[in-house]
Amino acid sequence: MKKLYTLITCTLLSAGLTFTSCEDQLDQVNPNKQTEDTFWRNEADFELALTSCYTPLKNALGGGYYGTRGVMLRICRADEVEFRNDISEIFQAMNFTNTTSNSLTQGMFYQFYNALYRTNSIIQKLEEKKGEFSEDFINKVKGECLFIRGFYLFQLGKEFKDAPLRMTASQEPSTFPLAKSSQADIWGQAITDLTEAGKLLPVKNDVIGKPTKGAAYATIGKILVYQEKFDEAIDILEPLTKSPYTYKLVNDFSWNFDEAHENNEESIFELLIEQVGGTDIWGNGELANSTQTNTRPREYAAPEVSGWYEANPTQQMMNIFWKEKDKDGNVDIRARESVAWNYPGCMYYLKPFQEVFAADKLNTYWILKYQNSKTMEAESDPPMSSINERAIRYADVILLLAESYLRGSSKKNLDTAIGYLNDIRRRANLNDYSGPKTDEGVFADLEHQRAIEFFVEGERFYDLRRWGLLEERLKTCNEVRYKQFMTGQTGNTNRYYYYPIPAKELETNDLCTPNEGW
Fold it and tell me: Ranges for the RagB/SusD domain (predicted)?
């Protein structure tokens, strides 16, 4: 059973993380309302402020990276699922017709800066008041805060490439105009933050949901792989496979996406999704009546089980799932735990697939990851899921190491790369890799394993983009989407590789310029 901790409310947040001013000396101050001067008094205030930094990641409708719409923005552009035309902003992003005014990509952009403001505020206040607290407490707060900031900066550069790098918390209008920094500089700052965080954070955190040393180093390693600094990535990631770390692949793949097995040995960092707070499922997560749950399961469930059927797996993704049978002649267990379809023995929301669907829908495919299909006969109303979002899994570390040994220079080693691939294959009850012992052969299996392992976890688009395979996979998946994607070609890049700097930022920040092609 997960441990719960109370999230900071909007009232406390505004007291601790914004400034107040009063031009009229006759204005009366509410003695019960905390202000900038009265909030940062003790350890509890700093703990509340830290808790507030996670909320922008989980904001359901405003672009929180692991919130309902944020997940959609991360999975809609690849070849693994297709959305129906219900949520216009997601449909636009999927079909590469989105603009600088897309409200959800704008929301994602400002959630990043919302969080950066909060982390910067904490770091600044901690420095101001460091004489009032113990060194242990200062290091604890600083380590957590730097992890959060570095984690956000990684995602900012991943989604928008070049963007303003705001490293101070200020409400002084003169500081608002800020030119973009390069993706390399944003990720460089992320690595700096995460490296310092790794020195300060514990190997195992006693508080569930808080970051650890392993979470910091796993994120650094991923950034290095994105930068194609594979030898450096090995140096950072490989220690995570040894003592004092105790990560391992759990035997049952489905344990990574249910509520009963949260924070297991494979989980390196999770976002807590909890039945605390209020009942407003459409709130921003910070008002008193905002729930801290999300609607993810109901978004993707079929209408036959009270779902909103927003997206379904593509035929191309299903073909990837079906490509290789396991040692017992069955379809890969990861496919069967990720998608429901009409195969012998398939259960969907506690009933046989063929009993749930009419004859004309027996050829349909339905997402299972993060669903309640094993515990409910239908999704609940109101939809308030408490399944934690697994932000970093040990399986990702293993496959990033396989890629690094495959694509590195001085540390390049096909046997070691294959060994890490086999770790993933064995958990899925597959035979060890037996394909060509060449760069091309091993890479083909690496792509295959990542596609299946991280289906709808928000990895596929970014993998294809960095490998230079996005155009090719889109072309074989959906000709219409591919042709529209290619209209974004600009020189040696494509504007649809990244979400655009929002129009609102360009209007209010006169030093910020559009990204290439926009």
Answer: 266-518
pLDDT digits (tens, 9 = 90+) for 268-292: 999 998 888 778 877 777 877 777 8
Name the β-bridge partners of 164. 180
CA distance 86 to 94: 12
Provide the CATH topology of domain 10-19+34-295+497-508: 1.25.40
Closest C-alpha among 95, 404, 374, 406 to residue 252: 374
Residues 433 and 287: beta-carbon distance below 8 Å: no
pTM of the model as a whole:
0.93
For the chain, the structural domain boundaries read 10-19+34-295+497-508, 297-370
The alpha helices in 296-438, defined as continuous H runs, are: 296-300, 315-322, 333-338, 353-356, 394-407, 414-427
Distance separating alpha carbons of residues 423 and 173, to the nearest angstrom: 53
In tens, the pLDDT along 402-431 reads 999 999 999 999 999 999 999 999 999 999
Q: Mark out the alpha helices in 340-385 (DSSP H runs).
A: 353-356
Per-residue confidence (pLDDT) for residue 280, from 0 to 100: 80
Cα 38 to Cα 30: distance, rounded to the nearest angstrom: 12
Alpha helices in 273-370 (DSSP H): 296-300, 315-322, 333-338, 353-356
The SS3 of residue 430 is: coil
How many Å from the N-terminal Cα to the C-terminal Cα in the chain? 47
**Cα diameter, the chain:** 80
